[in-house]
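Listing 4. Sequential folding, example run.
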Amino acid sequence: TLSLHDALPILAYSSLFHDAYYGTWTNSTDESEGSGNWKFDVLERKLTVTGTGKLNVAPWYEKPAINPVVYVDEEHPGFWGSIKTCAIGSGITELDGMICGMQINCASVTLPNTLKRISGSALEECAFTTIDLPEGLEEIDMYAFFGSKLTALTIPSTVTYIGASAFLYNEDWAVVTMLPTTPPTLYADELPFGECEKLTAIY
């Protein structure tokens, strides 16, 4: 039996008769800083983004079938549920903005080993319980994983900074493994791990 979250996007797709959507993306500030291509497979509900540089736009949300409004409750009336898996290709160095944010059915995200920074609610409110952060990642900034469903996470040895509310409201999170030999700088005024009620250990 399909849940409401699963059924609504499929109904939207079937009415439009598309197997996939394609497009390009260009850094909103400077094309030389980042550009590439994207594809959304309708049947698999998989978003694939390739290219180089800083990814700070999400043109796939301009397609109504990829971004139907999925009513959750009065507190969260406009969450999106179309993307089930997301793959960010090698060559992309930064995620900034709602790249896959608020995809409440997104259970799997693959990140490249070229990634240096995650910020701006890029993976906010997603459904994955764990994610492999690549060695080479340096910054996990504001709201990057806000409200996600993480239960365990390893912070790579290369991370030097964790920003404001980066992991706020990860309510099922139990264990953080820190690999940096020098502890990362934490944003002091709005702690990264706030309201993580089940968090019992940081190693």
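-- end of first protein; second protein begins --
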Amino acid sequence: LERARDLDRVIFDKTGTLTGAAVGITGVTLFNGRSREEVLALARALERGSAHPLAEAFRAGAETDEAAGSDAGASATGAETGPDVRDSREITGEGVEGVIDGRRWRLGRREFAQGPASNDNVFPLARAGRASVYLGNDEGLVAAFEIGIPLRAEAPEAIAELRELGVEVSIASGDQPEATAEAARTLGVRHPHSRLTPEDKLW
């Protein structure tokens, strides 16, 4: 605490620090012929025991009106049930994976979810206040979920005060560059860093 007055740079993690709680699934994009209901069930099963801030959007079964139309409220039904997951594990900075019906599924960062497959024709989703989570197996990506995760109400003021004190502020995030850059623009941060693993954030 005594050294804090000598700080000249602060690096904030984005998700869960500058942002608040995930408010729900705001969009679902399908890539491989599977239904919305099937990919949501797979994702919820994988996220069942995850501690990541974005996992709550899947466990709550919360699709917003924007994503699900007039049936949004019905999507919560059965959110805590679904397919059984074997050999489930959470990989820090990447996502979660597990075996469902004999096939290994991954949910998390695009590069992690697609496994050894290549999906050059799949583009990241990025809008202000949103995060992208991908679902895939060894054959490639099957879906992308857009999660509503707004900035904390107090974040702009806190960062403005730091800048007034002459402290350089940066954002470190594992999210896609577009989403991280949008958050940085909103907060007035000039140095956003994206697609970082937890180890990358310790520079």
